[in-house]
Amino acid sequence: MAQASPPVVVVMGVAGVGKTTVARLLAQRLGAPFAEGDEFHPDANIAKMAAGIPLDDADREPWLRRIAEWMAERGREGTGGVVTCSALKRHYRDILRTGWSDAFFLHLSGDRSLVGDRMSHRAGHFMPTSLLDSQFDILEPLQPDERGVALDVGTGPEQLVAEALGQLGA
């Protein structure tokens, strides 16, 4: 009996929830490629965010389409993959699903004060804490017809990955 291909997973949520940490660990456990969604941003987007200016939908669309292309490649190759992406709006997730319609969204969610505290203690990231409110303001939770699960980041990365693997049936 042939073994199913690893899934294509988008680890989503506002800045500071631990997307990269969880996604790296999940990719390792699945034996699938990992991609950091921030690396798909054009330089203009990074400069805008670093200056404390929130991105708008027009800024995000090319970025989302590049991530969708990565997802499509992993799906076609049968390797699966895990990518980080805020994916804050349903519309953004719809764009990502153009790359791989069966994508699984792992929404890491947390309280504003906890996430803000985490952001204030990380170094070397272009996203300032001042933009956190703008992310929470536009966040649209997963809808019942979207494949995925929301997990609270109050637990550690190992527990989050174990829960995600359970949801994925892995």
Automatic annotation (TrEMBL):
List the keywords (alphabetical).
ATP-binding, Gluconate utilization, Kinase, Nucleotide-binding, Transferase
Reaction catalyzed = D-gluconate + ATP = 6-phospho-D-gluconate + ADP + H(+)
Annotated pathway, please?
A: Carbohydrate acid metabolism
Q: Supply one GO molecular-function term.
A: gluconokinase activity
One cellular component term from this protein's GO annotations in UniProt: cytoplasm
> EC number(s) in its UniProt entry?
2.7.1.12
Q: Which NCBIfam families match?
A: therm_gnt_kin (TIGR01313)
Of which family is this protein a member?
A: Belongs to the gluconokinase GntK/GntV family.
Q: What is this protein called?
A: Gluconokinase
- Provenance organism: Mycobacteroides immunogenum
Upper lineage is:
Bacteria, Bacillati, Actinomycetota, Actinomycetes, Mycobacteriales
